[in-house]
Amino acid sequence: MKIxxxxxxxxxxxxxxxxxxxxxxxxxxxxxxxxxxxxxxGNSHVEEPGLKTLVQAAVNSGxxxxxxxxxxxxxxIISVPTPITETKKADLSYIxxxxxSLLPILKKNDLVILESTSPPGTTKDFxxxxxxxxxxxxxxxxxxxxxxxxxxxxKIINELLHNARIIGGITQKSAQKAEEVYKTFVDGxxxxxxxxxxxxxxxxxxxxxxxxxxxxxxxxxVSSEIGINSWEVIDLANLHPRVNIHSPGPGVGGHxxxxxxxxxxxxxxxxxxxxxEARNINDSMPQFxxxxxxxxxxxxxxxxxxxxxxxxxANVDDCRExxxxxxxxxxxxxxxxxxxxYDPHVKYYTHELTNFEQSFKDSDxxxxxxxxxxxxxxxxxxxxxLVRNKLVIDTRxxxxxxxxxxxxxxxxxxxxS
Length: 417
Ligand code: SAJ
Known about the structure:
- It is a single chain.
- With 417 residues, the protein is α/β, with parallel strands linked by helices.
- It has 17 helices and 13 strands.
- 40% of the residues lie in helices and 14% in strands.
- Strands 3-2-1-4-5-6-7-8 form an eight-stranded mixed sheet, with helices on both faces. It has a five-stranded parallel sheet with strand order 10-9-11-12-13.
- α1 links the parallel β1 and β2 (25-29).
- The structure holds ligand SAJ.
- Ligand SAJ binds at residues 117, 149-153, 205-206, 209, 213, 246-247, 249, 252-254, 256-257, 312-313.
């Protein structure tokens, strides 16, 4: 097949590369020339295990080339961002411009697949309306389906190949045509449904996780009030065969879980109260973490805080919607506090990143905000000569309490003290 993939980010790039590796002729399209250049040189602009090798193989095979404009194909996969606006409304402008850019090249029997996570009704109402301007009859002459991406950053390639896929067609024929594409590289089961159901399935998966994390965060706050360890409560409660409480933390970040539930709230605000409350609870965690920092350093004059981790979760370089950014904003607004940031995964950030030694030098309070694997191997004994005050706040229950206490540190766990 000849396939054009529009949007070469965390989803589009691995999808395009896997399609090319499976023998399709793939034209990638991204509006950023820099991204296109990096890909055409056989590299990846996204940090994801195995992706660089996959892109390199796809480009070297001659089956995959990137452009800044969409190239004529038979199948078009739209995998562009769907962020939220400041008022928590879905911003569909990237889908709109991607669809508009296809209008001059669409022809009879083409298939358009939307992979971007979208509010219910986007494919059937919003996208179909734009594509109708091609003068092709949607569902009969131009086929349209929603096939939401469901892969976990950090395990994208494995999950792209093995996860089950949900394909929602605007008509049955649309779903069947999309299934033909995914069948060529997905070895998990493929389920066909209508487009709006597929949109809702995807939103519910992330909302389920968000609500469960909110429950854990609420427990962390309650436990702090009464001086018990929420992590122990979770471990013991999860021994029950039908209980799976998630983990508390400094907040929920990323471009998915912290965004997608708002798409439901936007459309069904008076009904979707649980979804909305869960979002607000999770969004309150950076403030809760900051309050914990303030309380812990209240006895120190002009304390220097060392922030460990600014990406949105462990072992990734993606900083979108990361809780650390909000915590750092609070710290910055307080003239009494100084800070340094150490994150071995992140190369570019809005604030200066310092190296290991600079980050801990004269530190009064170490705050682990992201549980990158590297942090677990930090030897607290080694830090003894660097830091000014031996204080560590673990927001992820990632550090070995005993080891840090043995080295003389006061260890504070979010959701306990
Ligand atoms: N987090 C917690 N506690 C937990 C689990 C996660 O605080 O118990 C935090 C993480 O630290 C992070 C955020 O939640 O800040 C989200 O991380 P995640 O690993 O739960 O999810 P994402 O955003 O990386 O990927 C999710 C996945 N969705 C589900 O697992 C239902 C993935 O499969 C989706 O494809 C992806 O969203 C997406 O693109 O929508």
